[in-house]
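Protocol step 4 of 6: structure prediction from sequence.
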Amino acid sequence: QVQLVESGGGLVQAGGSLRLSCAASGRTFSNYVMGWFRQAPGKERIFVAAIGRSGRSTYYADSVKGRFTFTRDNAKNMVYLQMNSLRPEDTAVYYCAASSTYGSGVSAYTTPGEYTYWGQGTQVTVSS
């Protein structure tokens, strides 16, 4: 069982930066592939980024590649999403998720169905 709590959302102007954090409970945090998803009003939840169990492997949606950086600290049971050069279209509720399944690399973890545990979400609003 893993409980996830996101923080760090807020209102920022276009071109600005935010860092989202996700704190995980449980002693086996390093057993989980972690992901970030986002959901805008009236739209489906979509993939943002995934990170492997050790943190060495990452995979990003094309829309955020080069702007967002996903990292993890297994000693602290934390993951972070550094978001730079934010755009109005990045506005959404951002969700942290954990997956206990074993796939063929982090690029396999791009759908919500791959993840078992979810946080409550944190709102990110980017003004133009």
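Step 5 (inspection) to follow. The chain has a mean pLDDT of 96.
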